[in-house]
Amino acid sequence: MSAFTPDEVVNLDFYQRHGNFHPFTCPHRNDGAHRAVGGDLGALFPTVRGWSYPFCDYTQNWAHDFMLKKGTQ
Ligand SMILES: [Zn+2]
Q1: pLDDT (0 to 100) of residue 70
Q2: How close is the Cα of 1 to the center of ligand 1, in Å?
Q3: pLDDT along the chain (73 residues), means of 10
Q4: How far is the CA of 43 from the centre of ligand 1 (A)?
Q5: How far is the CA of 68 from the centre of ligand 1 (A)?
Q6: Domain coordinates of the chain in residue numbers?
Q7: Cβ atoms within 10 Å of 7's Cβ, excluding its own
């Protein structure tokens, strides 16, 4: 079962990179093994399987409701 729909993934990506909010990040981003990609150190990437991260196994399958809707800026 998908965590997010394809359209929701697009909207989550928008909020990660263009919103006025701090992006979702891996909670372990300061351990030295993480890198700054996607706009911030440890910034998570939305997928239909949930949030994912290129440098570790952290995942997250929730988002704020407003982030699932299309952004306006
Ligand atoms: Zn991590």
Answers
A1: 87
A2: 23
A3: 92 87 94 92 96 96 92 65
A4: 9
A5: 23
A6: 6-63
A7: 11
C-alpha 65 to ligand 1 mean position (Å): 23
For residue 37, give both structure tokens. 């990609």
Tokens of 61: 């399958």
Gap between the Cα atoms of 63 and 29, Å rounded: 19
What separation in Å is there between the alpha carbon of 45 and the centre of ligand 1? 12
Q: How far is the CA of 34 from the centre of ligand 1 (A)?
A: 6
User: What is the pLDDT at residue 44?
Assistant: 96
Strand partners, 41: 36
- What whole-number distance in Å separates Cα of residue 51 and Cα of residue 25? 9
